[in-house]
Write a structure and sequence with these properties.
13 helices; Rossmann fold; alpha+beta; single chain
Length: 721
């Protein structure tokens, strides 16, 4: 619960033959005598924007002139705007609600269709809100960031609060919307733009954390104060419920609904990215009460009045003579806690083995579904509490839900008020399918199965392991033609993330398939440490000063691909974004000899100043702090901006991709690294999209352009096109 909020803020031998830089075309970097390149940190500074526009123009002139670019762009546009996509949605009272974008509805439609028509060839979609029309009417660059819809127990209407972003930023405005009249409520809940979060308490009450003005934001730029806001009153008059510390990452509102309709109110104080204190707001109006749970744990919801808790650290409960392990899913009775404010007896629901990891729990009407990873593939289990009559001890049963294969499975919709449960399934070569699950029979039934979007004839999926520097076996998937020549000639794209306990799963990518696999390339997905594929310990193995092991994992996979004859440094490219962008920067500076193409997407690259930029302070629990001497010393060793040595190493030609309106990872990171290449008269490509936020694309057409540019670059570097 808490991590989903944070992460939603937080998902390629050397050659210069592709781009020869003529010194007369290289512009002098503004303020080149500035050692920290602070000019690049002025997001809308005149010097920074002039530099960005010049580099955009130079790079686009080259990449868009590539013969393959137009073909790739047309293919990408057709894929991302195709109506032959699954309209994933949420079920409410017999309707499926969906957000849809295509070539006509660039900003998108919020729409609905009767549940009994969902999945038919020609369902009668009813438009609720047209965001292209709204943007035109209000002369705003609106990007839809989601709708929070609530129906209080016993009421027959829904209340909706929409989040709208200017150009795709994390900062949003919230505006209350009436679904039935299809209009915004003039006197409804409305907030100014901010990085903010809310939860419905009832029809007339919100818990909300936003920028209240004054000293109410953390050093990470997130809300520090949660208030209770009553309908019909000014936001400024909302009642303060709890206040965190400046050093916190954030203070988030939290509500959990029980089966009887009671809404438990509280807040989550994220002291760091991975440690939190859960607070209960007592119904009698007393002071907030701390939930008696470990700081490294997540409440996954309430099912049959059992609080479901996922552990990220060992938990020894001396009063109960019990010890639970990192990665366990456990439960305790919510009513006992509400009555006593003490920890009730805790029971074990599921303990993963060494090949497994708990992902999340979805609560539906009369059922709870546990999603786990098993050797990286997805698996779904129904969980139910059982009572042993002999001693009244509570145990839990698990029953596997049948799926089409061993790929990526996930619950796309479940709600305690609805019988319907939607499950998605896909793998690298199997297009997405949407299934319904019947809790009575335990059977799944397909609703929509998409046709293939690229030619997978002759392709196969293999899982292999590479031995990292410390002897750990690191898994990776290889998607390639059967029987490829093991002579190092296969152009190969290697992708990874490696951070924040985010798992990389087998998934069907029409764009990668059409723009890369069809053209003869191989694709590799690396499940390196730092992710969550094998639970919290897989992630924690690479925290802070231990982070080099993540990079060693990635290098080990690349070296094995080369040793096995799959590819060669001349034919190997790498790609990654955000934290994966940092990974790309480190690989570019630590082992430039291993790759001929490096796509660096919305990256962190200045690791001595990252904590001072936008949301950077929230990530010190992952990377370490430049203000702590030991941690700073390590960050100096890996920071790409500080380990660029053009006189000592030969670098491949990288491609930096970022966004001016990324208010999560500062565009200054990419600007700085590109400027270093510029100062050294070394070739590079650069594309900074004005809009798009952290995704570097605000709509499907922008996504298509960004993908076409990236794959045109990869084709130029690795395919020789």
């Amino acid at each position: 619960m808490k991590n989903s909020l944070l992460l939603s803020l937080i998902l390629l031998p050397f050659s210069f033959h592709t781009l020869h830089a003529d010194p007369k075309d290289m512009k002098t970097t503004p303020q080149a005598d500035d050692p920290d390149m602070l000019w690049a940190e002025e997001v809308l500074g005149e010097q920074a924007l002039d530099w960005m526009r010049a580099e955009n123009d130079r790079s686009l002139d080259i990449l868009e002139a590539e013969p393959v670019y137009s073909e790739l762009k047309s293919a990408a546009e057709a894929l991302v705007t195709s109506k032959d996509r699954i309209p994933y949605g949420s079920v409410r009272d017999g309707y499926v609600y969906n957000f849809w974008q295509d070539e006509t509805n660039v900003r998108g439609l919020w729409r609905r269709v009767p549940l009994d028509e969902y999945g038919e060839k020609s369902p009668r979609w009813e438009t609720i809100l047209d965001f292209d029309k709204l943007a035109e009417e209000e002369d705003k660059n609106w990007v839809f960031k989601g709708a929070s819809v609530h129906r209080p127990q016993g009421e027959d209407r829904y209340y909706a609060l929409l989040s709208l972003s200017d150009g795709g930023k994390d900062a949003v405005v919230k505006r209350e919307f009436d679904i039935e009249t299809k209009s915004f409520l003039p006197e409804g809940f409305t907030t100014p733009e901010a990085k903010q979060s809310h939860d419905w308490v009832d029809a007339d009450t919100l818990l909300i954390a936003t920028d209240w003005g004054g000293d109410t934001l953390t050093e990470s730029g997130y809300p520090m104060v949660v208030k209770r806001w009553q309908r019909g009153t000014p936001l400024a008059d909302a009642k303060e419920m709890i206040r965190g510390q400046k050093s916190d990452v954030a203070m988030w509102p939290m509500t959990i609904e029980r089966d009887n309709g009671q809404v438990i109110q509280g807040a989550v104080e994220s002291e760091t990215f991975f440690t939190s204190t859960y607070w209960l707001f007592p119904e009698d109006g007393g002071e907030p009460v701390k939930w008696p749970i470990p700081m490294k744990s997540d409440i996954s919801g309430i099912y049959r009045d059992w609080v479901l808790l996922s552990l990220k650290e060992d938990w020894q409960i001396e009063s109960q003579d019990q010890t639970f392990q990192t990665g366990d899913l456990v439960a305790f009775d919510v009513q006992t806690f509400l009555d006593t404010h003490e920890l009730p007896q805790v029971s074990l629901i599921f303990r993963p083995d060494t090949s497994q990891a708990v992902s999340y729990v979805s609560v539906a009407k009369g059922a709870a579904i546990l999603s786990i990873k098993e050797n990286v593939a997805g698996k779904l289990l129904r969980i139910e509490p059982q009572t042993d009559a002999s001693d009244s001890a509570v145990s839990w049963s698990t029953e596997e839900i049948s799926l089409p294969g061993k790929g990526n499975s996930y619950v796309t919709f479940a709600n305690r008020h609805e019988d319907t449960v939607f499950i998605g399934y896909e793998d690298f070569l199997t297009p997405e399918s949407l299934l319904t699950w019947d809790r009575e029979t335990g059977e799944t039934k397909p609703i929509v199965s998409l046709p293939a979007k690229f030619d997978a004839e002759g392709l196969q999926i293999q899982q292999h392991f590479a031995t990292s520097a410390d002897g750990t076996e690191i898994p990776y998937f290889l998607v390639a033609k059967k029987g490829i020549e093991l002579d190092g000639s296969t152009p190969t794209l290697l992708y990874a993330y490696g951070g924040f306990q985010v798992s990389m799963s087998p998934s069907y990518s029409p764009v990668t398939g059409k723009l890369w696999l069809e053209r003869g390339g191989a694709y590799v997905l690396a499940n390196i440490r730092g992710g969550g594929e094998f639970g919290p310990e897989w992630h924690q193995a690479g925290l802070k000063t231990k982070r080099q092991i993540i990079y060693d994992d990635f290098i080990a996979i690349a070296e094995k691909l080369i040793a096995d004859g799959i590819t060669s440094p001349k034919k190997l490219g790498i790609m990654g974004g955000s934290n994966g962008g940092l990974l790309m920067g480190v690989m570019l500076t630590q082992r430039p000899d291993l790759w001929n193409a490096v796509v660096v997407q919305v990256p962190l690259l200045d690791m001595l100043r990252y904590h001072l930029l936008l949301a950077g302070a929230s990530w010190v629990d992952e990377y370490g702090s430049p203000d702590v001497p030991e941690e700073r010393a390590f960050l100096e060793q890996i920071s790409p901006v500080h380990n660029f040595h053009p006189g000592e190493k030969a670098y491949p030609t990288p491609f930096f991709v970022t966004s001016t309106k990324d208010d999560r990872v500062h565009p200054g990171h990419a600007r700085k690294m590109a400027a270093l290449f510029q100062q050294a008269n070394l070739p590079f490509y650069y594309y900074e999209n004005i809009d798009g936020g952290h995704s570097a694309a605000a709509n499907q057409m922008e996504r298509a352009k960004r993908s076409a540019l990236e794959y045109a670059y990869l084709a130029k570097q690795l395919l020789g096109e």
